[in-house]
Amino acid sequence: MTDTLLVVNAGSSSIKFQLFRLLPSGHRLELRSKGQLEGIGTHPRLSVRDAFGRTLIDESYEAAAVPDLTAAMHRLGDWLLERLGGRTPVAVGHRVVHGGPDYGEPVLIDDLVLDRLEHLVPLAPLHQPNNLAPIRAIRKRNPAVPQVACFDTAFHRGHPEVADRFAIPEAWYREGVRRYGFHGLSYEYIAHRLEEIDPALARGRVVACHLGSGASMCAIHAGRSLDSTMGFTAVDGLPMGTRTGQLDPGVVLYLVQAKGFDAKRIEHFLYHEGGLKGLSGISNDVRDLLASDAAGAKLALDYFVYRIAREAGALAAAMGGIDGLVFTAGIGEHSPVIRGRVLERLAWLGFVLDEAANQEHGPLITSAASRLKAYVIPTDEELMIAHHTLRLISGRSEALR
Ligand code: ADP
């Protein structure tokens, strides 16, 4: 065993990971290194940097040498063991997209838990199997290492029933057809950070905007999630890089009945042909759209900003008012243009932008004259997972640092 904690975030073709050191008091975590094994099954490449950005390894492999996530986890495990002098991490925390109706907290993984998470695969067929494969690979190789599952849905489990339901019969709800909400680890981190940055606002009504290649918004009242723009799956709500966001289900019926689309074709349509890419016909990347003069690029950005502002109004209504707003994730943290345009649309609520602070990425980007505050807060889902993992293996709960 070591003083090292591993955080794993596995997707369809990559495993991102971070190593944290438990500081001597055992209460605090310090980033040691972060990296990824990407291009699994196509152009596998393992790259890791230390906390100062220095390269520790940058190695490519034959596709056949790292054909799937299990092989990738083994490859990564070899590197880790070598790096840690043959000793295993003290625990591994995993990002798991779906905790279903029952898991409102992270959980220590055992056979029963793994079995229950397996049963949730139909709720997130594109993500859940990828999250579970590394867990199984580690259990097989190092059964004694404690592993913790941290869910993207957990932070939203306390939603009031009206936010948790669709207007369909009860039996479907009991079967699990609910508005789960996602990006929960990001929102939970934001809620904790806000307590440190602006404790008064953290006790109030906040609309948090996680604007990355996946995008959603969350109504957070006194640190607890009340509603989210994402629902049963991570395709609902805001338009995203390539996901449509909210769409009348009648459109899907039309595609089936008039165009003969089957389930696979519809999945591709919803997840890969929509959003900024679909609207613009140019790119899923906000940077490309901002740099383009094309009418499609302008429309895509107009639509994105419009929907963010519209959802902010809806989430404020869910909370009975709004005291502030937080921007986070790739676009939220790095694009003053998008932030400025959203706040301009929300001027009626009482936001007054501080243009210079916005260009500097805040953290506070509203002026002294603004009735409501808006912040830019970089998210850190991995640190959140590391803290949950530490808490579960040690029974301790510490402030996020
Ligand atoms: P993921 O959901 O993949 O973790 P991120 O949170 O890293 O995504 O966000 C990725 C997105 O952030 C990119 O698709 C890009 O559109 C956007 N982005 C990153 N940097 C900038 C920037 N400087 N200006 C505008 N958008 C940016």
UniProtKB/TrEMBL annotation:
Catalytic activity entry: acetate + ATP = acetyl phosphate + ADP
Textual note on the cofactor: Mg(2+). Can also accept Mn(2+).
Subcellular location: Cytoplasm
Pfam families: Acetate_kinase
Keywords of this entry: ATP-binding, Cytoplasm, Kinase, Magnesium, Metal-binding, Nucleotide-binding, Transferase
Coiled-coil portions: none
Residue positions binding substrate: 95
Binding site for ATP: 16, 210-214, 285-287, 330-334
Keyword Metal-binding: yes
Stated role: Catalyzes the formation of acetyl phosphate from acetate and ATP. Can also catalyze the reverse reaction.
Annotated family: Belongs to the acetokinase family.
Official protein name in the record: Acetate kinase
